[in-house]
Amino acid sequence: MTTTDGDTASVSIQDMSKISGLSEATLRYYEKIGLIGPVPRDESSGHRRYGGHAVERIEALGCLRATGMSVQDMRDYLRFLDGNGDGGDGNATRMRELFERNVSRIQEEIERMHVRRRYLELKAQLWSARERGDAEGENRIVPEVARAREGLR
Amino acid sequence: MTTTDGDTASVSIQDMSKISGLSEATLRYYEKIGLIGPVPRDESSGHRRYGGHAVERIEALGCLRATGMSVQDMRDYLRFLDGNGDGGDGNATRMRELFERNVSRIQEEIERMHVRRRYLELKAQLWSARERGDAEGENRIVPEVARAREGLR
DNA sequence: CGTTTGACCTCAAGCGCTTCAGGTGGGAGA
DNA sequence: TCTCCCACCTGAAGCGCTTGAGGTCAAACG
């Protein structure tokens, strides 16, 4: 997985993908848009070789991406990590704020998901009633669907 | 909001957007990909005029889209509605299955969201500890972050 | 020693929209 | 009547990736 040449470990894109959970295509894409990189290449083959420093950063990015964090927030995260957000200790505050914002974002998404589930459950029930030819059940569900629809933003 | 000419109500794209919750751009896009339409136009201005039949369908699509349903499932939904899924009563079954699949999809998403929230909360706490210079708190949180990370797919 | 395999490369297109740029028709006010 | 504005139009580009086509390099196999 890693090769030691001198003191620097070097990781292939495939391994970097396994480590970070980001697809190889995404790794190339992140490099292209300047979120990571430029990644050094193997002399003869031209293949990417991720060095120890990069590996840790990209592993972290994998986690953040997995939470649905925006590319801009990932950029800020790296900037704060490197101490170029403000200088000094203000960056811990920026980091906290960044994560708190994202917690709120997820929280709101969860709440919206519950509403959506409710709506879809009722729709499933409605068609289930129709499937059985249960006209009465159908009539009971229709107004509930209408109510659930209101919550769907 | 609606104009009566004869017996057909005609709705502008702006109003259709308000009714359905889909943006004007999305309405044009759905037409372009053949999910809806073609929508009749006003003779002189060339503006879209949605007729009563289309209005109901698009309103329904708005709800489905709001739940995150895929374009393909929306296509199937319309097909089953029109009775071209199978013929006869098999379509109620198809509809039920379609909605049940989507309930499961949402359910899984909700579960993943909880894991993500947990991870982000811990990260926020970690940086909060650093912000306060609380090295001890930091040490308590680090292993928890590591554990939460495992769940992130 | 030629060939096959596999990991990797780049470039282009597609997905589901959103946003933007540039243009038209028609009604209202000066 | 002239002009302004508003609602609408089309087409193209952007976002964050994913998928696919077509080509290179190096180690392994017959």
Automatic annotation (TrEMBL), chains A, B:
Keyword DNA-binding: yes
SUPFAM superfamilies, alphabetized: Putative DNA-binding domain
Domain HTH merR-type: start-end pairs: 12-80
Keywords: DNA-binding
Domain of life per record: Bacteria
GO molecular function term, any single one: DNA binding
Gene3D superfamilies referenced in this protein's UniProt entry, alphabetically: 1.10.1660.10
InterPro entries from the UniProt entry: DNA-bd_dom_put_sf (IPR009061), MerR-type_HTH_dom (IPR000551), MerR_fam (IPR047057)
Identification of the protein by name: MerR family transcriptional regulator
